[in-house]
Each structure stands twice: as C-alpha cells, then as structure tokens.
Amino acid sequence: MRHRLCYFLALAGTLALSGCMGSDAQVSRSLESVNVIDATNLSEVMLTVADPDEAVAYFSRASTEKPDRIDLKRGLGRSLVRAGKPTQAVAVWREVLNMPDTTPDDRVDLAEALIRTNDWKEAKAVLDTIPPTHETYQRYRLEAMVADSEKDWKRADSFYDIAAGLTTKPAGVLNNWGYSKLSRGDYKGAEKLFAEALVQEPGLFTAKNNLVLARAAQGHYALPVVETTQAERAQLLYTAGLTAIKRGDITIGKGLLEDALETHPQHFEEAARALEALEARG
Fold first, then answer.
1. Which pTM value belongs to this model?
2. Distances (CA, A) of 149 to 18, 22, 72, 106, 118
3. CATH number of domain containing 170
4. Which UniProt keywords apply (predicted)?
5. Could you give the CA distance from residue 231 to residue 264 in angstroms, rounded to a whole number?
6. In 83-134, which ranges are continuous DSSP H helix?
7. Which of 108, 127, 146 is the last residue before a domain boundary?
8. 12 in helix, strand or coil?
9. Which of 196, 219, 242 is at the close of a domain?
10. What is the pLDDT of residues 242-274, one digit of tens each?
C-alpha cells in the first residue's frame, strides 16, 4: 500500500509539473488514464469479492452512465448471475451481443444465463453458434451440462473430460461429472470422480456428500476417509442413513441417523425429524 501511495504521489507531482510545462488538455488526458486504471481495478473487485447486489448496483449505474462501454455491460450480466437473477442477466447478455466488439465468450455467458433459467433448448442453440475453434473450459462445461439434460451420456462424458483438462481447478467439473454418473446409476464411476474431485479440492463438501451417496448406493455405509468438521461428519452420516433406509436397510439407516444426532455439535433438526418419522412407522 505504501509503494502504491508513493506511486500516486509521484504521479501527482509529475502531473503538476506537466501542468506548468504543457497544456491543460495533456493534464486532463493523464488524469483520465489514471481514472480508467482505477475503474478497471474496481470492476475486478466488484466481479470477484464484492457483495453480488452491490456489484449489480455498481454496474447498472456505470453502464447507464456509459452505455457504449461493453465491459461494463458484461460486468452487469455476470453480476446478475452471481446475484441469482438469471432472467435479467439473459436480457443484458442479449444487449451485449448487439454491441460492437462481441466475442464468443459473450455467447458462452448468455448460454450459462439461459441454463440458469432452465431454458436448455435455447442454451443449446446459442452454444451451437459458437465456432468449434473456441475451446474454453466454460464452453465445454456448459456443453456437458446440456448433453446431460438430453441424456446424451457419450457426449456428456466427452465434454466433461475436455473441460476437466482445460482448467487448473477441475474439482467443480469433476463433481458435476460424478453427479451425472450418479444420476445414471453408474455408482462406481461416480465414486471415482468424486474421489478425484476431493484430491483436487479436499474441502469441497458437495463432493464429500456425493461420495457418501455413491458409496451408500452400493451398500457401503462406512464413511470414506476424508477431512471433515464435526458438523460435516454429522451431515455425511445423515446422508448415508437416508440412503440406507431408501435401499431397505432400515436398521443400519436408523443407527446412522442416531450417530448423526450424537455427532452434530448442535441440535440436528433434520436428522431428528427423520428418526422420529422412522420410529413412528414402527
């Protein structure tokens, strides 16, 4: 921070000197360049760590003030998705595609927003307009999800595999791929993918829970050896217990629910209700 302050002080001194030696127009251009740098940094913060609703407000205001700035409109579209407002995001991305200097990534973002509104047909149509040479993680992740929605498992597997190879953080897509396998009844294949996801990101709880689901669906109710908090362990026991009950292993399922209640550091309402319902059935 001190180095940055020194930089801006030095820059301010330079601008003051240039004001003495040059025209006001030169100074204005220099100041505008600094403002652009600051605005770019602020946009990046808004897209990553800012509260989603605050980001929406920022980009909405900025894009209204400067309607020709496609980067601000893109920021608005992405912020709306983060804020859980995909329908509004779809409208914004359609506006982006009518502006100059659009890229294939803009179509990918539109497809993602459409998927979030459950418009799989239109999402597929948008993805089909993207040149095959545009090979990105995000594009193939969405292609895999669309193929999943159509139960085209061969294409889904191919796209998931490509997507996983195009990112340095494949845990999320491996988890999605595993869930796809789980929904098909390929429990062993799903278990392998969830385990791979946890190698990449040991703290990914969704993958932990899905791993327990895949194992329990095969009758393996012992929890896998993964790092967990006490609350997470209780949740995993609960998941295993419900799966056991669904498979008809009532006694085992009841025991797992009791373990979940004892393990949780606080009152585990869901497990308590499930156990009460089970006991009421006799």
1. 0.80
2. 61, 63, 32, 22, 10
3. 1.25.40.10
4. Signal
5. 5
6. 86-97, 104-116, 120-128
7. 127
8. helix
9. 219
10. 999 999 999 999 999 999 999 999 999 999 999
